[in-house]
Amino acid sequence: MPFLSYPRALELKNELRETNAEVITMENENYAEGISRFSSSCEKEAGAIVRVTSTDEVSKVVSFATKRHIPFVVQGGGFNTSGSSSTFGGIVINLSKMSQITVDPGAKTVFVQGGAIWEDVDKVSATFGLAIVGCTMNHTSVGGTALGGGYGWLTGRYGLIIDNLLSARLVLADGRIVTVSMTENPDLFWAVRGAGQGFGVTTEFVFKAYPQTDPVFGGLLYFTADRLSQIVHFANEFEERSTGIEGFLFGFTGSLLMQETVVFVVTFYNGSRSAAEKFFEPILSLKPVVNEIEMMPYPKMNTILNRAAEFGGRKSLGGSNIVLPLNVKSVEEVYRDFDTIMKTFPRVSESFVVFELLPYIELIKVPNEATAFANRGKYYNAASIFRWHDPELDPKMRSLQQDMMNKIGRRAGVARSEEMNQGVGVYANYAGHEANATELFGDNLPRLQTLKMQYDPDNVFKKWHDMFLHTSVH
């Protein structure tokens, strides 16, 4: 496939000369900023970065690239660690200037452009006393998280992000601009909800919004490792006690405060302090080393995990799943494995493993075949971000991470469950390229492939997860 040569770059600039799009090439001083990513291992020398300002400009770039067989990628926030928003020699369609947010308080809907970040969505919605299901890390882009499914603190009450998507606007592989919803192009709307990155550039979203005027109870706690078994015991009771307004995350990370790997907890309760303290009393009574819990506006809750979403360093994101109850000894073994990695390798202390208990009450009301998203079941996500700095450690760190997440899945996930009608157990937004299309989409894959042949027969949009690739990539 041809790269974008300098003469082609000039041709692209000429194509966009009467628009507001900015074409950045290697000689521009902001080029280095344009190719920077959440993980430095994903930074590639693009032929050009195009900062678009409208759907029409996106269409022009897509048409330009596809007609000349030039590879292109789409960058929202650049947080994917598999390199799907980077290209060597191709075109990066950067959506960061497309960040408009409009709230209709009467209809309780929020219009969001594809380059907006969740922080701005939260803040704008809150001025109208509303909130939408959004990402728990608000530095990330709306498009990148929403199209793959999307879990948030409000998932227990309102479902996934895609369950609250009313419509979207896409630029297809041939440059056509279409609107998708339950009534317009419903087949493509089905595909977008869970596999949207594989069908086009989504430039606009319309979401349902919900009243959220009261503060929420939440924050971060750090514990010493001897508290881990009690934290797991609380996690095992979470499912029975939860009503859908709570959230509970726990995991491990390196610490500058203590000699050993620290155990952390993040709590969420969408209600009064007294009710929240009663719910989390078994955790609060464990005497955390650090306690940052408070009543706060809902938008602030989505900042708690941002320290894990800072740019810089080499990173890999991995995912698995867990079914309750967890075996305490198995979790303690994962802790020891992680602690060994922290002590063995230099400058990896900002890595973490997390078990995400966000209630599935609403999520499983939607059948797996109702949307392309196939990860609905009575289980929870586990995730990890490994961070290091030495490029020579790339294969080792990815291998250690994959081994750890596979162990979690085998010992604690749906693989050991007898529950029928479970989802695939793999969250596409957490999965690297080692996960194949069958693992990600299960029984939904044949329908997705049929739609790909209709809307993207040349498989232009394959950087996220290739739906025509059946075998694992190692």
UniProtKB/TrEMBL annotation:
Keyword Oxidoreductase attributed: yes
UniProt xrefs under PROSITE patterns: FAD_PCMH (PS51387)
GO molecular function: FAD binding; oxidoreductase activity
Pfam (any one): BBE
Obligatory cofactor(s): FAD
Keywords noted in UniProt: FAD, Flavoprotein, Oxidoreductase
Domain FAD-binding PCMH-type: 42-212
Family: Belongs to the oxygen-dependent FAD-linked oxidoreductase family.
Name recorded for this polypeptide: FAD-binding PCMH-type domain-containing protein
Upper classification of the organism: Eukaryota, Fungi, Dikarya, Ascomycota, Pezizomycotina
